[in-house]
Amino acid sequence: MPDLGAFLAMGGYAGYVWSAYAITALILGLLVVASLRARRSMRSSLDEAEQASPRRRAR
Amino acid sequence: MAKALHRLANPARFLRIASPLLPWIAAGAAVCGGLGLWFGLVGSPPDYQQGDAARIMYVHVPAAWNALAGYAGLAVASAIALVWRHPLALVAARCIAPIGACFTVIAIATGSIWGHPMWGTWWVWDARLTSVVVLLFLYLGYIALLHAFDEQETGERAATVLALIGAVNLPVIKFSVDWWNTLHQPASILRFGGPSIDPAMLLPLMLMAGGFTLLFAYLVIIRMQTELARRRVMALRRAALAVSQPGDA
After folding, report:
1. Alpha carbons B62 and B209: distance in angstroms, whole number
2. Interface residue B236 vs chain A (CB under 8 A)
3. In this structure, are residues B217 and A30 in contact, taking their beta carbons and an 8 Å threshold?
4. d(Cα B39, Cα B209) in Å, to the nearest integer?
5. Which residue on chain B is closest to A9 by alpha carbon?
6. Residue from the list B41, B63, B116 with its beta carbon closest to the beta carbon of A24
7. Does the CB of A18 have a partner CB in chain B at under 8 Å?
8. How far apart are CA B89 and CA B142, in angstroms?
9. Residue contact A35–B239, C-beta within 8 A
10. Could you give the CA distance from residue B28 to residue A31 in angstroms, rounded to a whole number?
11. How far, in Å, CA of B74 to CA of B66, rounded?
């Protein structure tokens, strides 16, 4: 394992390299969380709508 | 092939096939991304000209490739929706758009961060950078048109036409670095004569590209599951309304 301080310093480009990776991780992370949350809430709406449906179909 | 695609275009069948694939796609994305990060940040040498700043490549290039490939997918799905009127193609297109827009934002942001130490500026309005900004606006315009009309179908038709016209921008982006003078470096992977990049840098780049692509696919399937559920909710509510107000339908 190379020296941790040197690794974090990124040859003097630490601010650039780490901010690029952080922005990427942030956007992708938010996108995954938002997509999973939207699916969960839509699935519970679907359950409700199917319960309330006059012609309940077994699926 | 056409027949197989047609069969897959049934929403219920699509869900039956795609849903069990999801954990595998997620696992593949995590493994590729993890290995790509390790080789990209630790296991590969710094660039002989750019030093460690070149490591920004391992997030910038995969994001840009996926932004382009996503738009190609959006255009193909829109063409299928227009010609064969497959509802599933519209669902796919609608779900690709926000993901593609996010990948485009990542490509632009990381490219700008990379540009500052290398070019001495965060931004120039040259052909490559400008055509990628146009790509972002095509994605955003597509999303805006979808929601711009009371009648969902009107919005879908307008957005589909925009998606197809916007496909002209894809070759412009790809070849912008050859056709015009630009600060952006020319292609080093998909070029005549093979890749011009060291294998030690090609490995993390390909791992990250694989990881980003699998993540894109994962997000498309999640959002398509959501959209198909939403359509079923709408249909059930319409049916319930028709029963409660029989004279009104």
Report:
1. 5
2. yes
3. no
4. 13
5. B52
6. B63
7. no
8. 15
9. no
10. 18
11. 12
Q: Which of B32, B29, B39, B37 is nearest to B199 (CA)?
A: B39
Given the structure tokens 């080093």, which residue do they identify?
B188
- Here the tokens at position A37 are 């949350």
The SS3 call for residue B51 is strand
Tokens representing B171 are 């070759």
Side-chain half-sphere of B160: how many Cα atoms within 13 Å? 22
Nearest to B213 by CA among B128, B103, B135: B103
- Taking an 8 Å cut-off on Cβ atoms, the answer to whether B223 and A49 are in contact is no
For residue B104, CA distances in Å to A27, A28, A39, B64, B249 come to: 11, 11, 23, 6, 44
Q: Between the CA of residue B162 and those of A48, B141, B143, B168, what are the distances in Å?
A: 36, 8, 10, 11
CA B98 to chain CA centroid, nearest Å: 8
Taking CA atoms, B24 is separated from A36, B11, B167, in Å, by 16, 21, 31
Cβ–Cβ below 8 Å for A42 and B230: yes
Report yes or no: B168 and B101 within 8 Å, Cβ to Cβ: no
List chain B pLDDT tens, one digit each, 249 residues.
566 666 666 888 889 999 999 999 999 999 999 999 999 999 888 888 888 999 999 999 999 999 999 999 999 999 999 998 888 999 999 999 999 999 999 999 999 999 999 888 888 888 889 999 999 999 999 999 999 998 888 999 999 999 999 999 999 888 888 888 778 888 887 777 777 888 888 999 999 999 999 999 999 999 999 999 999 999 998 888 887 776 554
Is A36's CB within 8 Å of B222's CB? yes
- Spell out the domain ranges in chain A: 4-52
Nearest residue of A to residue B243 by CA position? Answer: A54
How far is it, in rounded angstroms, from Cα B69 to Cα B173?
A: 12
Length of chain A: 59
Q: Quote the tokens at residue B67.
A: 């932004």
